[in-house]
Amino acid sequence: RSCSFTGFSTVQSRKLAKSLSRSSVRSRMSLKSPKAYNSLQKGAVIWDPKPLQVKKIFEALKKGLNEYLEAHQAELDYLSGRHKDTKRSSRLAFYYDLDKQIRSVERYIRKLEFHISKVEELYEAYCIQCRLRDGATNMKRAFSLSPSTKASRESLVELYKNFQECTEDMCFIEGALEVHLGEFHLKMKGLVGFARLCPGDQYEVFVRLGRQKWRLKGKIETDDSQTWDEEEKIFIPNLHEKFEIKVTELRGLATILVGVVTCDSINFFTTKPQAIIVDITELGTIKLQLEVLW
Q1: Geometric angle at alpha carbon 30, from 29 and 31, rounded to 5°
Q2: Which of these, 279, 89, 270, 245, lies nearest to 184 by C-alpha position?
């Protein structure tokens, strides 16, 4: 897009140049397409950053990435040991195959190390903006309690501007951090209800994470097995949203709500598949079982 600056005064041009040259966090970071973050587009209301939630996700993410790194490092050590033994025994074909595997694992380890360093860099920048924002808030509070003068009013305007800039930068960093959260692969394992589940019963399960939705229908067969029209779904993790699960029973044209529960995703950032068993009813007479692989 081209922009015309016809009619701008010298002072306005200087202000614009100063604004464009500002060392913003957003200008130094690769973010998702603006379409993925509608709330960050021009003219939209910036959401309120949530530092405590971001800290919890960051710690869980870093722990999970380090688990993957340790697992692949152990695999590399094992392959390297076999590589030396194979070289001595001169089994050339097997030796070259092992060599390819080692190079592949080494490349993946380098990617993981870069991934971890990028996440740490983003969170460090986030903490800096958070401290600057807190400082601006404290200064605003102090100025508001002092006698009102022209200088204090000008300072309050500048502090409010700094506060807004820090808030925007924190929100954009949150968006950049979400790019590095990976994927959750959810598998439907079925309902558990003992006497509550009878042959012929039909249920609908609705799983939502932010704007992402998964709706699937299942039926209890005569041999007590369950059939579902869809068994797996990929969700993109979100910093602020929790999984919301709703189960309804289908009876002809009528639907009966069985229960609604929410589930935090913070424990899913791990190398091993996580089994989720949640109580759909208050008494736990019907449970939903899912499996999550990160």
Answers
A1: 110
A2: 270
Task: Provide the pairing of β-strand 274-279 with 287-293.
Answer: antiparallel
Between strands 226-228 and 274-279, the pairing is unpaired
Determine the angle formed by the axes of helices 150-178 and 51-89, rounding to 10 degrees.
Answer: 40
Residue with the bigger pLDDT between 12 and 103: it is 103
Cross-strand pairs, 209: 212, 243
Residues 235 and 183 sit within 8 Å (Cβ to Cβ)? yes
Report pTM. 0.77
Q: How many helices (H) and strands (E) does the chain have?
A: 4, 9
Residue 71 and residue 73: Cα distance in Å, rounded? 5
Q: What is the DSSP string of 130-164?
A: HHHHHHHHHHHHHHHHSPP-HHHHHHHHHHHHHHH
Share of the chain above pLDDT 70, in %: 80
Task: Please report the domains of the chain, with CATH numbers, ordered by start residue.
Answer: 51-179 (no CATH), 184-293 (2.60.40.150)
